[in-house]
Specification:
Layout: H1 3-10, H2 23-29, E1 36-40, H3 46-53, E2 57-62, H4 65-78, E3 86-90, E4 102-108, H5 114-127, E5 128-139, H6 143-146, H7 160-166, E6 172-182, E7 191-200
Parallel strand pairs: 1-2, 1-4, 2-3, 4-5
Antiparallel strand pairs: 5-7, 6-7
Helix pairs in contact: 1-4
């Protein structure tokens, strides 16, 4: 899907995604001291908004201008005096931005063809400061046959091994790389997520 497709999807009356943060974002970032975060492909901002509420200062980007406007509108209503701690921008996940600027860079359910994915990982690593973290969460390949939800194109799904292959040569150390089961309301089986936590060296 290109930006126009996503604009059309986000233009509906209801939220495309849950208003609550991703369970792995909540678990893993709760162990970190708050700081500056970059949420890449943030959509309507469910993770970015929650991070701000946990005292992070967040820049949230998405290539859908409709999603970014919706995220900004929700932030205006929800964050009150903390609104100034969220910056929302239209941006390409594969493009370099600020260098060594963030304590946390989040890529949550960003699924791209291999070349674009590698570019996104390079950009994310570049954006993280030394000692900062890059957190990758995605639908695993096994999710197609053993899980529920997510993209149905196997070429863009993310296994831990694929994420690690995409960071070869980048200045990061692996702190966590595994597949986790995520409960899905109303489903008869869990979703299978790849969760990879990297530390910038």
């Amino acid at each position: 899907m290109d930006a126009t497709d996503w604009d059309a999807r986000y233009a509906g009356a209801d939220l495309v995604w849950s208003a609550a943060p991703n369970v792995w974002v909540r678990e893993l970032t709760s162990r970190m001291p708050s700081g500056r975060a970059l949420d890449v492909a943030a959509g309507e901002g469910r993770n970015a908004l929650w991070l701000v509420e946990q005292d992070w200062t967040v820049t949230a980007t998405d290539f859908s201008s409709v999603a970014v406007q919706r995220m900004s509108d929700i932030a205006d209503q929800r964050l009150g005096s903390m609104r100034e701690h969220l910056t929302t921008l239209v941006g390409d996940a594969t493009a370099d931005g600020e260098h060594s600027a963030y304590d946390l860079v989040l890529l949550c359910y960003l699924h791209l063809p291999d070349d674009e994915w590698r570019a996104a990982m390079r950009a994310a690593t570049t954006a993280a400061r030394p000692g900062g973290h890059v957190l990758v969460i995605g639908h695993a390949l096994r999710n197609l046959t053993e899980g529920v939800g997510g993209p149905q194109d196997p070429s863009i799904l993310l296994d831990p091994e694929g994420v690690l292959a995409s960071i070869e040569g980048l200045p990061v150390e692996v702190e966590l790389a595994e597949i986790r089961e995520r409960a899905v309301e109303g489903a008869d089986r869990p979703a299978l997520d790849t969760v990879v936590l990297l530390r910038r060296t």
